[in-house]
């Protein structure tokens, strides 16, 4: 950010439409958020490549998804080191002892200390760490309501739904069609629960990627003339505990993880 001196210089790069797709109310609010390093500039989907390249120094465009995640993690760790972690633990109803806050990601312990150092029971990949840190920073602590809603009903959901379908629901549906142990494995690995839901799916499972952020995955088997379907539902309190970007990242991570597991299974069964 060295050669940017004020938010107006960032604002000038934006299209001024105030379309809110970056989750800010206005382009100006977004410019301020970028200036304060609360948001990466590429969170505005309307910047053209030339602008991004020209302002490469400002944007610090990472080369790979992993680098981007690593950067995001570092930024979030720094932010967490600046907050009162014991208060955050109270807000989230999480454990706080020995200067560390502990939550469970899919039932596995994950901790961060007051200096921003992370530790976890098992390896937790970047797709989970970014949402977990955002949850610790911004989660309201509101308890799940037990009312399930779709991704499109979440704040910022409609404009991201096409991506969500493409990167999260469709890959899982394809897996569920061919890999019959998918849900059994999900329940085992992720400490989930099979339930009878009021949605008339053939299979419904509930997972807890984060303590106050459950998701329900429903699958309809193919029937004569009807394709199978898979949808992921969220608790009505989700917007209070996790932002839409983190939600998307988390579900993308789940889909990627199971694609890997299924590949591994396929290799074993041959
Ligand atoms: S997404 Fe871009 S154009 Fe839309 S409000 Fe945000 S900054 Fe402005």
Automatic annotation (TrEMBL):
Domain 4Fe-4S: 2-61
Top-rank taxon: Bacteria
Gene3D superfamilies listed in its UniProt record: Electron transport complex subunit B, putative Fe-S cluster
One function term, GO molecular function aspect: metal ion binding
Keyword terms of this UniProt record: 4Fe-4S, Iron, Iron-sulfur, Metal-binding
Protein name: Putative Fe-S cluster
Organism the protein comes from: Desulfocicer vacuolatum DSM 3385
């Amino acid at each position: 950010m060295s050669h940017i001196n004020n938010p107006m210089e960032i604002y000038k790069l934006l299209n001024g439409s105030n379309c809110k797709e970056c989750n800010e109310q206005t382009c100006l609010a977004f410019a301020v958020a970028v200036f304060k390093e609360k948001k990466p500039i590429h969170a505005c989907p309307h910047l053209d490549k030339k602008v991004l390249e020209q302002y490469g120094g400002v944007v610090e465009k990472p080369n790979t998804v992993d680098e981007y995640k690593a950067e995001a993690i570092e930024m979030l760790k720094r932010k967490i080191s600046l907050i009162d972690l014991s208060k955050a633990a109270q807000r989230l109803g999480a454990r706080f002892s020995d200067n560390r806050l502990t939550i469970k990601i899919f039932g596995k312990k994950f901790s961060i200390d007051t200096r921003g150092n992370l530790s976890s029971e098992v390896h937790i990949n970047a797709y989970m760490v970014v949402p977990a840190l955002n949850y610790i920073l911004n989660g309201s602590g509101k308890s799940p309501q037990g009312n399930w809603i779709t991704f499109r009903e979440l704040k910022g959901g409609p404009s991201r739904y096409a991506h969500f379908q493409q990167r999260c629901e469709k890959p899982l549906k394809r897996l569920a069609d061919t890999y019959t142990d998918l849900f059994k494995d999900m329940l085992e690995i992720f400490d989930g629960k099979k339930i009878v839901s009021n949605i008339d799916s053939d299979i419904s499972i509930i997972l807890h990627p984060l303590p106050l952020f459950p998701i329900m995955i429903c699958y309809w088997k193919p029937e004569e003339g009807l394709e199978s379907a898979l949808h992921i539902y969220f608790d009505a309190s989700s917007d209070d505990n996790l932002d839409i970007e983190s939600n998307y990242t988390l579900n993308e991570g789940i889909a990627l993880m199971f694609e890997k597991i299924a590949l591994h299974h396929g290799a074993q069964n041959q």
